[in-house]
Specification:
Elements (H helix, E strand, L loop, with lengths): L27 E2 L10 H7 L15 H21 L6 E4 L2 H15 L6 E5 L4 H10 L5 E5 L9 H7 L4 E5 L13 H10 L4 E4 L11 H4 L3 E5 L10 E5 L14 H4 L7 H16 L1 H22 L3 E3 L10 E6 L4 H9 L3 E2 L5 E3 L2 E3 L2 H5 L4 H4 L2 E5 L6 H20 L2 H4 L15
Parallel strand pairs: 1-11, 3-4, 3-5, 5-6, 6-7
Antiparallel strand pairs: 2-8, 7-8, 9-10, 10-14, 12-13
C-alpha cells in the first residue's frame, strides 16, 4: 500500500556548507497516530462522488438518489462493523465534532437529572476542552488520575459517581502513549448505575474491536483519517434510547441529528477504509506490531536515560512512545526531520517555553523528562529496513543533543530509574 500523495523527499544538510549539493533521502513516515495516507482503494471509491455522481443526497433526481444509496450503504457497512443498527450511526466532520456532540448532547439532554461528568486527566483535548466549556453552564467535571502506565482504575470511576452524574467519558486508547483503557469493565459500572458512557475511540479505529455491544458503550467517536480514510469525516454512534440532543441545527440531515449536506465522498471513503481495516485486522496489526517492537527494543537497548511511556503490553499495536532525559522533544523532531524521518512529540511550544504533555505529567513523569518525549507510530507502508534506519539515526541524534545540554554535562550516571514500561 502506498500513499496517494507521498510526502516530498527530505534532504539533509550538506557536509561543508549551506550551498553544498544535497542528496535526497527516502522519507520515513512514523506519525500514523496523527494521520494516515488515504489508501488507493479508498480514493478510487470516493472519486465518482466528486464528479459524475456529485449529487446532493437530499435531491430526488438520479444523481441525488445515487448519492443517497451510497450514503445508506456506507451507514450499513459502518453499523455492521460496530455491531450497531444503521439508524444509530451519525456521520460527522471528524473525531473532534463527534466528541463535542456526544458530550454536549448528553449533558444538555440530561441537565434536569444532574450536572456531573466523569472523565480522566489524559483525554484528548477534544474531550477535556469540551468538559471545561460546559462548566460555564453549571456542569462540574471529575478528572480522574491514572497510574504510571496511563491506566484508569475502574474502582475509581465507580467511587466518583454521584447522584448528579449524567455522563462518563473515557477514551478507548490514548493518542500519545497508546495505553488501552478497560472500557468494557467501566461500561458495566456505568450500565449498572444507568449512566450514559461515551468513549473516544479515535485512536482505536482500525486497530481494536469496535463492537459496541461487547464494549458496552452508549456513544462512540471515530475519525476516518486515523485508519487510512480521508480527513474531515467521522462517526458518532449513539445507542438507541440514549438521552441525547443534536448540537448542530439547520437541515434535517442524519435523521435531524446533524444538520448540513452530507459529505458523500468522504463518507464513502470512511466506510471503505473501515471495511478494509477490519477485513485485514489481524494481518495489519501483526505487521505494525512487529515493527513497533523492533523500535522499542532497538531504542531502549541503545539509548541510556530513556524509557518507554505507556503500558508495556496493553498498548496500541503501532505505538512506540518514549521519554528522553536531558533533551527536548522538538529538538529531537528537528534532528529527525533533516534525515527525512517524521514523528511527533507530546511537548508543545507555548509562548517560547516548551511545555510538557498533560498526559505525561499525569503519569507522574517530572517535567524535565516529560519534555523529552517522542512518539513513533508505525504504519502499513513501513518496513524493517526503515525501522533500522530510524534507530541508527536517532541514537547519534540524542547523543549530539545531550552534548549541548548543560543539564546532561553535570548529570550523574544512570539518572533514570527503572520505571514506566521499561527503562535504561
Amino acid at each position: 500500500m502506498s500513499p496517494t500523495n507521498p510526502v516530498p523527499a527530505a534532504t539533509p544538510p550538506g557536509p561543508n556548507s549551506a550551498s553544498s549539493e544535497r542528496q535526497p533521502v527516502e522519507p520515513i513516515y512514523l506519525d500514523h497516530a496523527a494521520t494516515t495516507p488515504v489508501r488507493p482503494e479508498v480514493a478510487a471509491a470516493m472519486a465518482p462522488f466528486w464528479s459524475e455522481r456529485a449529487g446532493n443526497p437530499s435531491s430526488i433526481y438520479q444523481w441525488g438518489r445515487e448519492a443517497r444509496r451510497a450514503l445508506d450503504e456506507a451507514r450499513e457497512t459502518v453499523a455492521a462493523i460496530l455491531g450497531a443498527r444503521p439508524q444509530e450511526i451519525i456521520f460527522t466532520s471528524g473525531g473532534t465534532e463527534s466528541d463535542n456532540a456526544a458530550i454536549k448532547g448528553v449533558a444538555f439532554a440530561n441537565r434536569r437529572r444532574g450536572n456531573h461528568i466523569i472523565t480522566t486527566a489524559i483525554e484528548h483535548h477534544a474531550v477535556l476542552h469540551t468538559c471545561e466549556w460546559l462548566e460555564q453552564f453549571g456542569f462540574q467535571t471529575t478528572y480522574l488520575p491514572v497510574d504510571r502506565y496511563g491506566l484508569v482504575d475502574p474502582a475509581a470511576v465507580e467511587a466518583a459517581i454521584t447522584d448528579q452524574t449524567v455522563l462518563i467519558t473515557i477514551m478507548y486508547a490514548n493518542n500519545e502513549i497508546g495505553t488501552i483503557e478497560p472500557i468494557a469493565e467501566i461500561a458495566r459500572i456505568a450500565r449498572a448505575r444507568k449512566i450514559p458512557f461515551h468513549t473516544d475511540a479515535v485512536q482505536a479505529g482500525g486497530a481494536l474491536d469496535l463492537n459496541v455491544n461487547r464494549l458496552g458503550v452508549d456513544l462512540l467517536s471515530l475519525s476516518a483519517h486515523k485508519f487510512y480514510g480521508p480527513k474531515g469525516v467521522g462517526v458518532l454512534y449513539v445507542r438507541s434510547g440514549t438521552r441525547w440532543q443534536p448540537q448542530q441545527q439547520g437541515g434535517a440531515q442524519e435523521r435531524n441529528r446533524r444538520a448540513g449536506t452530507e459529505n458523500t465522498a468522504g463518507i464513502v471513503g470512511l466506510a471503505t477504509a473501515l471495511k478494509l481495516a477490519y477485513d485485514h485486522l489481524e494481518e495489519h496489526n501483526a505487521h505494525v506490531q512487529r515493527l513497533r517492537d523492533r523500535l522499542i527494543e532497538g531504542i531502549l537497548s541503545a539509548v541510556p536515560d530513556c524509557q518507554l511511556t505507556g503500558h508495556p503490553t496493553r498498548r496500541l499495536p503501532n505505538n512506540a512512545s518514549f521519554a528522553f532525559r536531558y533533551v527536548e522533544g522538538e529538538s529531537i523532531l528537528l534532528s529527525l526531520d533533516v534525515k527525512g524521518i517524521y514523528a511527533s512529540s507530546g511537548s508543545a511550544c507555548t509562548s517560547g517555553a516548551l511545555e510538557p504533555s498533560h498526559v505525561l505529567v499525569a503519569l507522574g513523569l517530572p517535567p524535565e523528562l516529560a519534555r523529552g518525549s517522542l512518539r513513533l507510530t508505525t504504519g502499513l507502508d513501513n518496513t524493517e529496513a526503515q525501522i533500522d534506519r530510524v534507530i541508527a539515526e536517532l541514537v547519534p541524534a540524542i547523543a549530539s543533543l545531550r552534548a549541548m545540554s548543560p543539564a546532561f554535562a553535570g548529570a550523574p550516571p544512570a539518572a533514570v530509574p527503572a520505571a514506566v514500561g521499561g527503562a535504561r
